[in-house]
UniProtKB/TrEMBL annotation, chain A:
It is found in: Membrane. It comes from Triangularia verruculosa. This is V-type proton ATPase subunit a. Residues 101-128, 279-306 form a coiled coil. InterPro entries: V-ATPase_116kDa_su, V-type_ATPase_116kDa_su_euka.
TrEMBL record, chain B:
The chain crosses the membrane at residues 7-25, 37-61. It is found in: Endomembrane system. It comes from Cercophora samala. GO terms for molecular function: proton-transporting ATPase activity, rotational mechanism. It holds the Pfam family ATP_synt_H. PANTHER family: V-TYPE PROTON ATPASE SUBUNIT, VACUOLAR ATP SYNTHASE SUBUNIT H. It is a multi-pass membrane protein. GO terms for biological process: vacuolar acidification. Its main location: membrane. One of its GO terms (cellular component) is vacuolar proton-transporting V-type ATPase, V0 domain. Keywords: Hydrogen ion transport, Ion transport, Membrane, Transmembrane, Transmembrane helix, Transport. This is Vacuolar ATPase subunit E.
Length: 859, 75
């Protein structure tokens, strides 16, 4: 019965498998399965915390390597060295061996030490450089003070009340200079020179003034270039200051204050010759420091550049390795047999592939013990795995955004591939806009490869949905032709079915009414262009589009409802067919199917030829419910009887919908009970290993081999797992009542909901008409001469941009959302259960795609 | 000449196209995808065309306009 292949029609057949992997090749096996990406492992160590697991040590180590790699990256950012991104399409990374990973870890360790020591020495040197620069500035600026001050020594001396003993001479600055008699020390004046941040100068001055009670003379000058603060790497503007004061203690105090204010005090000689020597010396040292600094920087950059070549690959390798160990942590270890035991889900049809992969790994490792893979029977609900390809991926995504389909139910994305774009097109029907959209989507598909690298988020989203856009555009071209709309204008592709009925003495401005050219000719494709621009255009097109919305809605819902039959048959639940599908279908068709038949019948009758009044279908439907048997204006003979019968049929379905399924289920349950069957176990059987843990010996299975290691696995695996549900009539009944009410009301509200097709297509058409009449219309009418031509070009640009932005992008998005709703709500509610859980296999591919951190390393 | 019979001619054409889509869909695991998508697309398009055609088959109202210029009155 099961299909031989997995098709997109249902989710793939899944099997629970158990793997016995020799401990030595555990890593390699997981690596190979990660490349394959087809197995979702279950956690067999649920009761162990993350720290107690076997491979936590390895993960820690890899975390450390990861940290080091991030450190390199940040250092590269700092030095603005570009990262060479890894393009996984071009180069593939061979799965690394353990030794390779060890080597990498060691190498990272070494590199980290080297980089950080280089960094350290760079920082020390930088600090030294700043100090020397400051010193140079102090020497230069202070020199200026001195030169100026020397000229006025005598004045200072005279002004100072100097009664200190010569013993208190400033020893420090007494350097036995040539012109000692004119020096400051000669008059007991000492000084402190240094550098302070400019924003602190005011506070510094004030504090000095207060503590020394004004016994100082301060001179300062701004350093024109900002100096780099080595600790923060930010430029700081600083001032050079020289403070003259007398008395050793006062000078010491000034020093202390300067230091506490964050100023750097430098040694400056009073004597100008010595100072000149100092300047030379400082310059020489500064040169040396700068040389060394440059070398250090170069070495660091060379080192980082070398790292930058391989960094991406390393990050990817380590990321994969970590994922492998995290997966290994899910496995259970059987100490006695030195094997790892893993459990997981995989697609049944891919089992041979998995087997051969495992075989390969074992062969490569040269082990005699094969890796065993066993399929186990389980009553757990398998995950939903819907295979996609390039084309269906985006469609599947918009379906999955609503929910995960139940395992093996009809994939709701199958009808969506056509119905979603088609309903979009019904709302978006404009040939011109559709052509632009078609070009855009074709361009995206033609330049598929280069465009994939674009990381701009908004574009990436549109790019992801390029095939949806393509199908939408193709259908929009078709509906545009049907509506006969190109940028709100119409095309005269075929000869019209109408001609103007011209009265004898007709003058321009008088109203004209159309008449049929030929009773046997009708406009063959789409709307007759003669309607365009007429006064009663909307009257006609609204009636047409409303009826079309109802018919399309009816078709869409009937089609969707049929899937519930397919689902019921697939799950072998005939009661769902007889208790849900059949009465539901009859109910729906008796009311809305009838309405659709009436619409079509009314169209097909030539009411003028038979000389009867055409009935209003809306009134007919309302009277059908409110006054069964009353016919306002007859549509056909025997209408009253047919309508009464249909209404009766519809009403009759309600109790069937309500009671058939619950009572049948109860009867079935009671019959089973009476025959002595019980519910399937109090606990669901999780795996084959379950038997070892409780029913050891009692179930007759030879369980002597099983030991603690194995027993441990089954214990506590998913304790939260739902118990097998006991049949409860009340619950089933409530569920069915809700379903019935929902279904009957939804038939009405969902049909009405399809009127959005009319509303949105009307809005789109009117909006584009307004845009034309505000831009191109007047420009074409009034433009004369060169000026008119230029004006027309400008207006056309505006028209085109507005068309693209408002009518294609904005209207397109709105039509898309409405179409999405029609798929999600109106269609899916008819058949899909959405009770599944998604299959998330362990795969390096998805790891690379989903990890944000890795993304920046991948090209 | 396009008259009421066109609906059935169109239906025949569409049925032929659907059969062709069923028969010639590429084999493989995506065959069901091809078949369902193509047939659904054909039927949807036919439905829309047929609705439009039927709506104009026996029109209940005629186009009316009063801004026709003399030169275009016979077009």
């Amino acid at each position: 019965m099961a299909p031989t292949k997995d098709t997109p029609f249902r989710s793939a057949d899944m099997s629970m498998v158990q793997l016995y992997i020799s401990n030595e090749i555990g890593r390699e096996v997981v690596n190979a399965l990660g490349e394959l990406g087809l197995v979702q492992f279950r956690d067999l160590n649920g009761e162990l915390s993350a720290f107690q697991r076997a491979y936590t040590k390895d993960i820690r180590r890899l975390d450390n390597v990861e940290r080091q790699l991030r450190y390199f990256h940040s250092q590269m950012d700092k030095a603005s060295i570009p990262l060479r991104k890894l393009d996984l399409d071009v180069e593939t990374l061979a799965p690394p061996t353990t030794t390779e990973i060890d080597e990498l870890a060691e190498r990272c360790q070494g590199l980290e030490q080297r980089v950080s020591s280089l960094n350290e020495s760079y920082e020390t040197l930088k600090k030294r450089e700043v100090e020397l620069t400051e010193w140079r500035w102090v020497l230069r600026e202070a020199g200026g003070f001195f030169d100026r001050a020397h000229g006025s020594v005598e004045e200072i001396r005279a002004s100072m009340d100097n009664d200190d003993a010569p013993l208190l001479q400033d020893v420090e600055h007494n350097t036995g200079a040539a012109d000692v008699e004119r020096s400051f020390s000669g008059m007991n004046i000492g000084f402190v020179a240094g550098v302070i941040a400019r924003d602190r100068v005011a506070a510094f001055e004030r504090i000095l003034w207060r503590t020394l009670r004004g016994n100082l003379y301060m001179n300062q000058a701004e350093i024109p270039e900002p100096l780099i603060d080595p600790s923060t790497n930010e430029p700081v503007s600083k001032n050079v200051f020289v403070i003259f004061a007398h008395g050793k203690e006062i000078l010491a105090k000034i020093r202390k204050i300067s230091e506490s204010m964050g100023a750097e005090v430098y040694n400056v000689d009073e004597n100008s010759d010595l100072r000149r020597d100092q300047v030379h010396e400082v310059n020489a040292r500064l040169n040396d420091v700068q040389n060394v600094l440059r070398n250090t920087q170069q070495t660091l950059e060379a080192e980082l550049t070398q790292i930058s070549r391989a960094l991406s690959a390393w990050v990817v390798l380590i990321g994969k390795e970590k994922a492998v160990y995290n997966t290994l942590n899910l496995f259970s270890y059987d100490g006695a047999r030195r094997t790892l035991i893993a459990e997981g889900w995989c697609p049944k049809h891919d089992l041979p592939l998995i087997r051969s992969t495992l075989q390969d790994v074992t062969n490569r490792a040269g082990l005699s013990v094969p890796t065993i893979i066993n399929e186990i029977r389980t009553n757990k609900k398998p995950p939903t795995y819907l295979k996609t390809n390039k084309f269906t991926e985006a469609f599947q995504t918009i379906v999955n955004a609503y929910g995960t389909a139940t395992y093996q139910e009809v994939n709701p994305a199958i009808p969506v591939i056509v119905t979603f774009p088609f309903l979009f097109a019904v709302m978006f029907g404009d040939f011109g806009h559709a052509i632009i959209m078609l070009c855009a989507s074709l361009a995206m598909i033609y330049w598929e490869k280069p465009l994939r690298k674009v990381t701009f988020e908004l574009f990436a989203m549109v790019y992801y949905g390029r095939y949806i856009a393509l199908v939408m555009a193709v259908f929009s071209v078709y509906t545009g032709l049907i509506y006969n709309d190109v940028f709100s204008k119409s095309m005269t592709l075929f000869s019209s079915q109408w001609e103007w009925d011209i009265p004898e003495n007709w003058t321009e401005g008088q109203a004209l009414v159309g008449k049929l050219k030929d009773p046997n000719y009708r406009y063959p494709f789409g709307l007759d262009w003669r309607w365009h621009g007429t006064e009663n255009d909307l009257l006609f097109s609204n009636s047409y589009k409303m009826k079309m919305s109802i018919i399309l809605g009816w078709a869409h819902m009937t089609y969707s409802l049929c899937f519930s039959y397919i689902n019921a048959r697939h799950f072998k639940k005939p009661i769902d067919i007889w208790g849900n599908f059949v009465p539901g279908m009859i109910f729906f068709q008796a009311i809305f199917g009838y309405l659709v038949v009436c619409i079509i019948y009314k169209w097909s009758v030539d009411w003028f030829a038979i000389g009867q009044q055409p009935p209003g279908l809306l009134n007919m439907l309302i009277y059908m419910f409110l006054q069964p048997g009353f016919i306002d204006i007859p549509l056909y003979k025997g209408q009253a009887a047919v309508q009464k019968f249909l209404l009766f049929l519809a009403v009759l379905q309600v109790p069937i919908l309500l009671f058939l399924k619950p009572f049948y289920l109860r009867w079935e349950h009671n019959r089973a009970r009476a025959k002595g069957y019980r519910g399937i176990g109090e606990r669901s059987r999780v795996s084959a290993l379950d038997e070892d843990d409780e029913g050891r010996g009692t179930n007759g299975r030879p369980s002597g081999e099983s030991d603690e290691g194995v027993g441990m696995i089954a214990q506590g695996v998913d304790h939260e797992e739902e118990e097998h549900e006991e049949f409860e009539f009340g619950e089933v009944m409530i569920h069915q009542v809700i379903h019935t009410i929902e279904f009957c009301l939804n038939c009405v509200s969902h049909t009405a909901s399809y009127l959005r097709l009319w509303a949105l297509s009307l809005a789109h058409q009117q909006l584009s008409a307004v845009l034309w009449s505000m831009t191109m219309g007047p420009a074409l009418k009034n433009g004369k001469g060169i000026g008119g031509a230029i004006f027309l070009v400008v207006i056309f640009a505006a028209f085109f941009c507005l068309s693209c932005i408002i009518l294609i992008i904005m209207e397109g998005v709105s039509a898309m959302l409405h179409s999405l709703r029609l798929a999600w709500v109106e269609s899916f509610s008819k058949f899909a259960e959405f009770g599944g859980w998604p299959f998330a296999p362990f795969s390096f591919g998805t790891l690379m795609e989903e990890n944000e951190e890795l993304k920046e390393y991948l090209g | 000449m396009a008259n009421g019979w066109s609906i059935f001619i169109g239906l025949a054409i569409i049925l032929a196209m659907c059969t062709a889509a069923w028969v010639f869909s590429p084999k493989g695991e995506n065959q069901v995808l091809w078949r369902s998508s193509l047939i659904l697309a054909f039927v949807s398009c036919y439905l829309m065309w047929a609705i439009t055609f039927l709506a104009q088959l026996h029109p209940l109202i005629e186009p009316r306009r009063s801004d026709i210029r003399k030169e275009f009155v016979h077009h």
